[in-house]
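Blinded run. Sample ID left blank on purpose so nobody reads anything into the name before looking at the predicted structure. Input follows.
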Amino acid sequence: MTYLSPNQLKQYENEGFVSPINIFSKEKAKKIRDEIELIEKKIPKELEKSGRYNAHLISPLLDEVTHNPKILDAVQSLIGKNILVCGTTLFIKNPNEKGFVSYHQDAKYIGLEPLNWVTAWVAITDSNEHNGCMRMWSGSHKDNLKDHDQKFNEKNLLTRGQTVNNVPKEKTTPLVLEAGQMSLHHPTVVHGSDLNKSNNRRIGFVIQSYIGTNVKQVLGKNSVQIARGKDNFNFHEIIERPKVLMNKNDLKIKKQENDNLQEIFYKGSSKKGTY
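Blinded prediction complete.
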């Protein structure tokens, strides 16, 4: 078992995140990257824009990551033994594309209540300050949800460009990860990331999020997978895990889930972005 240590639990409680956590080898990360890039080659644009969501539904290797026992042990330390996978996102920053993520809080727009959930950010490539790693505003999860401005921007990798203004960058912590490591962060911690200034791709696979079975989706509809334990609440439909890569029926399920997700992300907005 690889549950979080007392020091890691203290870091999460005080800072709103814990990082780094070793999950798998760089060789394993390379195999996962190869499968992602095979999907990109075989079905161009399948993982672009809003297609970046829920790739674990068509990729057995990404599905394997979402059900990785080391990840689930760490998650169980925070939300309990009954765990659902509520969705995933690929954050890919290609060199010279100038993609960034504005500072925001996940709980502001994701519609999951109560806040018995956590997001896992898994590095498929190395993630550092030069290529645009995540930065966390330490301790910001202890405050109430902050006001967010909608700043639609083609280079912003968030749906609405939702932005917490005036974040003191000197108080943010860069989460430097090697391929095969992950971080966990709280639903209300303020975080974002800068441009990729390197000559290589930066790929992060984000389980957004692992939720307790007592958590409802209040803005729309999510389907889930059971990752561990039992679902005694039955708030969500259960979807099967993929058995082969890029199965036609799985592609249809992914498309439907992503359409549902768009309804959640743009709830109450008069405008839609490209993500």
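Unblinding after everyone has recorded impressions. The mean pLDDT is 94.
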